[in-house]
Hints:
Oligomer: heterodimer
Largest sheet of chain B: 6 strands, mixed
Order of helices and strands of chain B: EEEEEEEEEEE
Number of strands of chain B: 11
Number of helices of chain A: 0
Structural class of chain A: mainly beta
Radius of gyration of chain B: 13 Å
Helix content of chain B: under 10%
Strand content of chain B: over 45%
Shape of chain B: globular
Radius of gyration of chain A: 13 Å
Distance between the termini of chain B: 41 Å
Shape of chain A: globular
Largest sheet of chain A: 7 strands, mixed
Amino acid sequence: ETGVTQTPRHLVMGMTNKKSLKCEQHLGHNAMYWYKQSAKKPLELMFVYSLEERVENNSVPSRFSPECPNSSHLFLHLHTLQPEDSALYLCASSQDTAGETQYFGPGTRLLVL
Amino acid sequence: GQSLEQPSEVTAVEGAIVQINCTYQTSGFYGLSWYQQHDGGAPTFLSYNALDGLEETGRFSSFLSRSDSYGYLLLQELQMKDSASYFCAVSSGYALNFGKGTSLLVTP
């Protein structure tokens, strides 16, 4: 398997649920990212990891908790989400955080009820 | 802070040429990238300019003027499959900051 994969592709959850999104990259990259994309809005950077260390947290609410156990895997743990958190969550990777070329996964379409 | 401006929508005819402009304001600048995203799909990388001038990749070209904080994506010989959203993005060292995207509709 090549590129960047994300699971699940679709997720419906209630506001009291806890779920996790998973991202895996098979490109040997050192940097990984989480983005949120809402309808009619630009991609919003959420978190940046470089060599498994978080280097940027873009004022994201604490109900979103990232985890990067190694340079190939990135998780986004979700708890007590709000309906406005419904969006497409995209994972990306790049060789390093200069990151002019980022490779995106297919995304997880999240619906919070 | 950072801001990027690009038109929200563009419509063009199949076979034509279209130019999508992007102006930016940023405190740190490494380069300007362009990404394409089809409905329901993930963004895919098209081009990157770190230096002034024109970069050509097949039917797509990208231009950068650092002194003007301006760039554009040029799409030639438009095809129906080029209907998509196109995002410019500024690389500022840590990550990419994306514009709001331009929705391109190619009509027969």
